[in-house]
Structures
1.
Amino acid sequence: MSQSLIVAKFGGTSVADFDAMNRSADIVLSDANTRLVVLSASAGITNLLVSLAEGQELEQRAYLLDEIRTIQYAIIDRLQAPDVIRQEIDRMLENILMLAEAAALATSAALTDELVSHGELMSTLLFVEILRERQINAEWFDVRKVMRTSDRFGRAEPDVDTLQSLCAAQLAPRISEALVITQGFIGSESKGRTTTLGRGGSDYTAALLGEALHAARVDIWTDVAGIYTTDPRVVPTAKRIEEISFEEAAEMAIFGAKVLHPATLLPAVRSDIPVFVGSSKDPAAGGTRVCNETPNPPLFRALALRRKQTLLTLHSPNMLHAHGFLAEVFAILARHNISVDLVTTSEVNVALTLDTTGSTSSSDSLLTQALLTELSSLCRVEVEENLALVAIIGNNLSKACGVGKEVFGALEPFNLRMICYGASSYNLCFLVPTPDAEEVVRALHQNLFGA
Ligand code: ASP
Ligand code: MG
């Protein structure tokens, strides 16, 4: 069975309403090897739940709950026999209300995860019902039975070994009996409390389950027909990439291309499982295949853009001929749970950007007063916000000749605030002022990929 198993994941827009769910059901049923389906919450639901988890006043709670009910009832209302499932969803809504009341008294990360998990719990219940009305032997599976994670609520890490053995014991047997529908994004820690893998984590769930079940492929169905040379909203002539390597796709995800959750490819790479990315609105349009090796990897593959970068420049005359300064800086950052993204150094300066990948709900800067105070005791600190990171993804970039000319030739009119090149042969990246960012991407795209 597992030799040809496909795990299919559908994102929020692919299960947004009755029609979207049916389009996704068509995709599932079009390939008999698809035996496990992983779903996000219906579009919009997670944001509403996060808002409730932040602790709201009575009227706002009622309003948000109503919004959630409206989205899910719109699906129920189109079922042939809506009564039983309506009761189940009503029970979920009661739970949500109770948890939202608790959050209004005192918020907590554990409570937030318990609350937001209801989005995926509801979408999967509804999807099973849609399949059953189409006479399919579909089964709802609570992924928390197998997705064991750490107790870092909001951004839990999976315990891959436990996941593997729990899947073999509990999930694999179900898959051989029925088409199994389960939740992305959520898990549980060793005491049984609900956790989440971080926003957008359903892709990661699909890849983790695919790995645990030795799937032949993981299909990620979203609202874009694959991975493009850059964001088509910025460059309308961006081209779809038919095949891309794990390394390149991982770089793209990390550097801000929003197609895949950055962690998705870890299990895929580890276990060499190809990942397909396509649009559930238009499956016939095809998509992008992400796999171990691609024929003739090009020097330049794609451009990614990540906004809201914070650059810290640290100045310390003591650094001259001294050692241990960088170690101290990194130790301070580590104590504040901040990982560094880009770094450049000179004799008495260090410039670095803070890594914001995977940070949860708010997109606020990670920079806190406590961190600044601690750094300032060591050196002079300059902070620049409002920068954007442009990353060029490619192959052998650090080994080829002429890369600098081709890249920077097109960027003459722009200020490049910082350049990182040489650490990875898969990327070259630099910071530009945010107002220039899209222009820079367009100029580069034109130069590297043509019109
Ligand atoms: N529903 C979750 C979110 O909106 C997880 C996901 O969609 O992947 O972040
Ligand atoms: Mg999503």
2.
Amino acid sequence: MNRPIKKIVLPVAGLGTRFLPATKAIPKEMLPVLDKPLIQYAVEEAVEAGIEEIILVTGRNKQVMEDHFDHAYELENILQEKGKGAAFDVARSMLQEEGRIVYVRQMRPLGLGHAIWCARHLVNGHPFAVALPDDLIKGKPGALKQMVNSYNELGGNMVATMDVAREDTSKYGVITPGSRDGKRIEVKGLVEKPHPADAPSTSAVVGRYILQPEVMDILSDTKAGAGGEIQLTDAMAKLIGKQPFHALEFEGRRFDCGSKLGWLQANLAMAAEDPHMAAGVKAMISSFK
Ligand code: UTP
């Protein structure tokens, strides 16, 4: 029996330089897509996947995220007094069972691998999921649930992948694929941001992972890689051959909300599916020259 995935690490300590100046005083993960911040989409996806403990690795300006997942009594009282029941419900819709969300600080932004390592004592020897909230995935069920379902059969480690254009491989971690079973692909190798000419495939890793706790020991010894950061990809690559390692081609649409264009696409795609906004947004788009 594979040990169940009950914990997730959400790294939210990056600098978000591509979104400055918006991210100067607020974290990137608090940027909204329509009316909901990115971090809330990630927490909801995790809860849908049956995850019970949500570990946020925060950095500067963490307080606003803690506040987002807590009561706002003044707002709640005013909405109640004014009889605004629907708004009251929305204002509380992100509240989780007390103790479910925990926070740890990454004191220096040394990269994604380092951020995950900062959660090692909270992960405490259990297999765990990771989601990057700026990779917004619209899927039914959500990408994490799809992965947990596959993990329950396969065990080991897993990354979510999608096919990308060859010229884009240098933006992603890319797998060397082994045998395939439907949407599940055995991972034989992993390389971070390869030049298109050197990329072992066009199967790119997006921000959803299931990892065995041994990755924390590897991260302890991992030196800075591409971009001077401690790369999660380098640590994961060392697990290949020692533990089962699969990629899951998730079903759904992924938006890179860490980039302005991806964030805009996410907003437009969500608006186009919202019954109250669809007509307006489609008319707006067709009016563009
Ligand atoms: P990104 O690669 O998008 O980096 O991080 P970034 O710093 O957030 O954004 P840019 O590139 O400067 O615009 C991917 C994920 O890893 C987290 C980020 O918060 C994001 O969720 N991260 C990255 C950390 O938590 N710590 C780090 O040191 C780096």
3.
Amino acid sequence: MQPRIRRSRPPTNLRPFSGPLLDGPERAAARAMLYPVGFTEADFQKPIIGIASTWSRVTPCNMHIDQLALEAEKGVNANGGKAIVFNTITVSDGISNGNEGMKYSLVSREVIADSIETVVGCSGMDGYVAIGGCDKNMPGALICMARMNRPAVFVYGGTILPGCLAGPSASSRGRELDIVSVFEAIGQHAAGKLSDAELHAVEACAIPGAGACGGMYTANTMASAIEALGMSLPNSSAQDAVSPAKLDDCRRAGAAVVDLLRQGIRPREILTKKAFENAIAVVVALGGSTNAVLHLLAIAHAANVKLSLDDFTRVGRRVPVLADLKPSGRYSMSALVAIGGIRPLMKTLLDAGRLHGDCLTVTGETLAETLADVRPYPPTPAIVRPFDRPIKKESHLVIFRGNLAPEGAVGKITGKEGARFEGKALVFEGEETALKAILGGGVKAGRVVVIRGEGPKGGPGMREMLSPTSAIMGKGLGRDVALITDGRFSGGSHGFVVGHVTPEAYVGGPIALVRNGDRILLDSLQRTLTLDVSAAELARRRKAWKKPAPRYTRGVLAKFAAHVTSASQGAVTDANLTL
Ligand code: FES
């Protein structure tokens, strides 16, 4: 079905960028280059629509996206455009987490945004579809769409199916697995609760094929946020990666971007402040990843929308957590797909006055119009609770402030780990030493693990602490140990964990001044993160503090560190450019 665009606007120039590139005798050389890649004479009269593919065999999240790109190409060409498929990079957090290579992860978001901009800008593309299936390529694509403001539609690559354990342990056989199961199995193995053979069985079965990590981790969170923003077609966020529905989504997205071009609808008309509030509301109701905070701030920056950490608190006070999804809950994304995806949940939020129904979407319709015919979820299984019987009455994404995080910090507090935590600091300079201590039994109940030197500048790259948090869970310490960091978390992390502590240690934030044994209080009800050390003592420590030497002085990590802003501003790289 073609998306229906009802807005009446005067026809616009459909080739504002490809026309100057390709028209006239003086552009003959440019046209000559395009015949070999499939252009006919007639194609030079059509708008050029890019298809930004994140295909690679680096990771299963994106290994099918070449096929999806071909479907999007068909959709463009069938609706009067001329599609050109091109690639950008992708990396995999699932593979890199816990390793030095993970420092490139957040960097890749910026590289992806920059690379799509580079190709679209250089090639005179009048609009484009971007297809992403992993944590950073999705916000990277959206940052570019907001930045360039050419008609664009995002397509989510889709979720993976759960793995199924068929190993030697009769007790756990048949259990559904995903990548976080493996990270937590590492902790169980270190605690002596899992044998070598059982760990290997989990490792070998957890990832059955193509698609993004299968809980409400960062990829599924961002896919849902992007649909709520209005930048993907209805239901794009909730389809299995390998499914007829996903192929259809791609064809319709290709057609939709040509229609957007005809109507002159550009991303910044869609990416309004209200649209970001809708995205926050949906992320909260789904129990989504803390990374949504970082990425939505970055996309908003690119769209020239003023969004701050306080907006997450403001919106989150009115929105309950409704979905019982992993990592804190029981169900996988594919289970949510099977009962109708996120649209019934969005309808519930709309009916409760928690979404702005008048926001425009890439269909050309308002959000309310796209949700008009949505039916409620079936009564069982109870993957999504009714609005008046939530899992948590307000947001699990808690913005903490206090003398340990004057510019803010982000925690994912579902309530299962309790509302307050008080303990003595155990400080680590970087993730590796912390992980070693946790796995080696050096972290006991009552401790607040402090991992610093992992911020956007200091890391650089703000690594995700999935390995340490999973090790804590695997060790059975999830309710007894808290973890704070100036790095961030995977969507798969759970427990009493607070990240994005700002200012970060590298720039002399208070987290740099914490010492072993200091008392730290985390209060999710008061939203405070407090270091119980006197101001005079902190002043003494600050005087003695020395800024560490940068870890990288050349290459992309050094460039990122030089330009990146604080996590409280989305960790973007184009905010402070001066010529
Ligand atoms: Fe790609 Fe998780 S590593 S979605």
